[in-house]
Amino acid sequence: MYLLAIHGSPRKNGNTDILLDSFLKGIKKEAISFEKIRLSKLNYKPCIGCGECEITGECVLEDDFKELYPKILKADFLLIATPVFFYNHTSYVQAFYERFQAFWARKYILKLPHPFNKTPKGILLCLGATKGKKLFESVVRSFKYVLDTVYGVYIGGLFIRGIDKKGEILDHPEYLKLAEDIASKLSIFSEEEIIKSPEKLGLNKSTSP
Ligand SMILES: Cc1cc2nc3c(=O)[nH]c(=O)nc-3n(C[C@H](O)[C@H](O)[C@H](O)COP(=O)(O)O)c2cc1C
After folding, report:
1. Cβ contact 155:125 at 8 Å
2. What is the C-alpha separation between 103 and 122, in angstroms, rounded?
3. How many domains does the chain have?
4. Which residue out of 11, 15, 16, 84 has the highest number of ligand 1 atoms within 8 Å of its CB and is therefore the one to mutate?
5. What is the Cα–Cα distance from 148 to 159, expressed in whole angstroms?
6. Ligand 1 centroid to 89 CA: how many Å?
7. Does a structural domain hold residue 208?
8. Which of 33, 61, 63, 90 is deepest in the core (most CB within 10 A)?
9. Ligand 1 center to residue 165 CA distance, Å?
10. CA 36 to chain centre
11. For the segment 54-109, what is each residue's pLDDT rounded down to a tens digit?
12. Does ligand 1 have an atom closer than 6 angstroms to the CB of 178?
């Protein structure tokens, strides 16, 4: 099993970075191999809407995303760690998602199956400064649409309110422990159990968590 972990904040050693590292610490390496990608370090563009992928199934843009396409396709788990920026994921994550247009074209225009017959399971680690009731709603909705393009399923996330200053999450070891515990259970549970009962792992699958 392979987990692709995407870090979507521009802030290195910031809150989502620390939360994601706690999660990755909990993974049992004999069960799941993983890679962490920091989007802010990559040189990639958002989708330019050229439509070429509707003919070939491939994106024409020549940038760092080329290395990400095969990693996304081999992923059994796709994890997005993002802070809330203006009630959504960051622009880095938005541009990352837009490049799934090539997968959308493969599935819905070219009618191609997943090349490895996988069902990538989507996980969110998300936090924001305020306590807004609908703080994570857009983040969840977008991710579900994105997962659909790669025949994936959303299994839920960990959502934390009231975290703002850089590193403030360290004042809440209980959240870091939660992230670590989710990952360790992910390494133990069967795929069937994970999809059927994600709440047993501590994942929140609500549409507006
Ligand atoms: C451009 C920008 C927009 C933000 N928008 C929101 C917001 O809409 N709601 C919120 O609760 N927090 C918002 N925040 C606060 C961040 O979510 C918060 O600082 C978070 O802890 C940053 O995580 P990081 O350290 O991983 O970058 C915003 C921060 C920035 C820089």
Report:
1. no
2. 16
3. 1
4. 84
5. 21
6. 9
7. no
8. 90
9. 9
10. 11
11. 999 999 999 999 999 999 999 999 999 999 999 999 999 999 999 999 999 999 99
12. no
13-30, pLDDT tens digit by residue? 999 999 999 999 999 999
Residue 206 in any domain: the answer is: no
**Given CA atoms 197, 202, 206, 207 in this order, what sign does their dihedral have?**
negative
In a domain, 102, yes or no: yes
In this structure, is residue 67 part of a structural domain?
yes
What whole-number distance in Å separates Cα of residue 18 and Cα of residue 175?
A: 10
Q: Which two tokens stand for residue 156?
A: 């839920």
Question: Domain containing 197 — which CATH number?
Answer: 3.40.50.360
How far is the centre of ligand 1, averaged over its atoms, from the C-alpha of 24 (Å)? 22
Nearest CA to ligand 1 atom 21: 164
Q: Which atom of ligand 1 is nearest to the CA of 168?
A: 21
